[in-house]
Glyoxalase-like domain-containing protein (Goodfellowiella coeruleoviolacea), 127 residues
Amino acid sequence: MNPPEFTAGLNIAMKIPKAQYEATVAFYRDTLGFAVKEEDVSCTPTVSRTHSVRFGPNTLWLDCVDNYSQPDLWLQLHTDDLDAARATLAGIGIHPCDEVEPLRDLEARTHWIKNPAGVVHLLVESG
């Protein structure tokens, strides 16, 4: 088996407590002047609202999570071989944690993982 290739994805998700959500959206829209667009949340049952922000070549997702007490940052990671990636990651003790946020209607094969510091990454097989 060849070692998998990993590349950075274009999506960054900022999970924001409900009490700070409106002020955070206003910061990116009104203070920084970024284009901010409210998006559909039907495929992410743990998110009550979301806005997308063009953040250079990336999309920053401002996700309102009603039961969070502090913000969290999640990153997207791509691999050319999900099975090899899982095996490589398992070799250093990193296993899927898909329970962090169930996803619906994804066309790609995916897993949620956490790096050793606990930062969540969406690992997507891109081919």
